[in-house]
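Table S2 (text version). Query chain:
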Amino acid sequence: MAAQNMMLAAHSKGIGSCWIGGLLPGLMDEKILNEIGAPQGYKAVAPLIFGYPGGRTAAPEKMEPEVKWLI
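Corresponding structure-token output:
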């Protein structure tokens, strides 16, 4: 919830954000945590990045769901 609140607050200030979930397995490695200066015993739970967007991204086209009846 804290990560979501950070992302919403950033958006309200015109700052873009992205949850980098693929990074999480690497951040479970004690060696990597030491290299990036994380305090001893700390674990990453929500890898986020923030930055100023270069423009607006168009919303993707809505796809209607395909419903299959199993009768």
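Notes on Table S2: The two ends are 41 Å apart (CA to CA). The chain has a mean pLDDT of 91.
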